[in-house]
């Protein structure tokens, strides 16, 4: 008799985006004349950078000729992309070995798949609110999860608590959904905590390229000692518009070593290589060529222009919220503005208010964890016109 994984029954049903879609559909049916502005889903809207498209076209052409055709590539990605990522990190002051870098089809898969490397007895520490993938993938393994609260007092940046013993720590900076970003000093405290407890930090840097202040680290590996206690996930999705193209990478330093239950030392880099070569067969050649172009100096400039466009949208939003006297977080090193719902409204109440009164769609903060209650996430990934129009509606509104 086949017995299924009972942990799936423990997952909380996530109706967030289906619920939003249902409410939006009902509103559209009732008011077909109203122009809805969508600022909810965290997806990019600008097209791929020209140098990325050129590189992918050229690579597809290569695949069409006998002399340059390629079949299976290395599961962990092509060396040309490892080198491009290595150079990109070096430009931002972080030294990596190409063998630390593993290419994948995106950060979500890697965030979920990394759970394979750890025993299910590990205690996992997860911020609240945050990207739901960390908690859900560990619930699927039946692991004990502890939450650390993001609050306005800690600016949605929870810090280590020595009375809490965790083995695996998820950090997401710049954070989805709050847009909050850890400073160097704060990350140093996390690295110190991890080293003291022999814990491992799983650092999601999917939004690193949005950071504009050079004193804020774009990688956990900018912190001395992190190579012995951290793994970093990154993605081309939000920073180079690859949400549909699919490509990401994970950095597992070769120094990272921990013990098995019977005391044998294993290198996590070797384990991850084994995991990927066993369960994964690599990313499309032409997508990796596109990603290589995105990591080049020209690609960084062209993608940077896209990020500037989104940053300006965020500024437009923040200006309006300043005028209204609203409390908000993020919006500076992040495409997300995390606003406190006016007049103490609950997330879904304010969501409904914005939709029904102003035809604006946000994402209820409560969908990212209990501490998100009373907040709404708005994204800067929309069009300039849409953002301006939405802010005009909010500005004119009485709330
Ligand atoms: C969007 C997002 C990802 C997913 O990235 P993909 O590479 O598209 O899978 C990972 N982490 C966070 C925090 C995100 O917001």
TrEMBL record:
Entry superkingdom: Bacteria
Pfam families in UniProt: Aminotran_1_2
EC annotation from Swiss-Prot or TrEMBL: 2.6.1.83
EC class: transferase
Organism placement in taxonomy: Bacteria, Bacillati, Bacillota, Negativicutes, Acidaminococcales
Reaction catalysed by this enzyme: (2S,6S)-2,6-diaminopimelate + 2-oxoglutarate = (S)-2,3,4,5-tetrahydrodipicolinate + L-glutamate + H2O + H(+)
Molecular function terms from GO: L,L-diaminopimelate aminotransferase activity; pyridoxal phosphate binding
TM ranges: none
Keywords: Aminotransferase, Pyridoxal phosphate, Transferase
Pathway this chain belongs to: Amino-acid biosynthesis; L-lysine biosynthesis via DAP pathway; LL-2,6-diaminopimelate from (S)-tetrahydrodipicolinate (aminotransferase route): step 1/1
Cofactors (names): pyridoxal 5'-phosphate
Provenance organism: Acidaminococcus intestini (strain RyC-MR95)
One of the GO biological process terms: lysine biosynthetic process via diaminopimelate
Record-annotated Aminotransferase class I/classII large domain positions: 35-394
Record CDD domains: AAT_like (cd00609)
Entries under InterPro entries matching the protein: Aminotransferase_I/II_large, DapL/ALD1, PyrdxlP-dep_Trfase, PyrdxlP-dep_Trfase_major, PyrdxlP-dep_Trfase_small
Protein name: LL-diaminopimelate aminotransferase
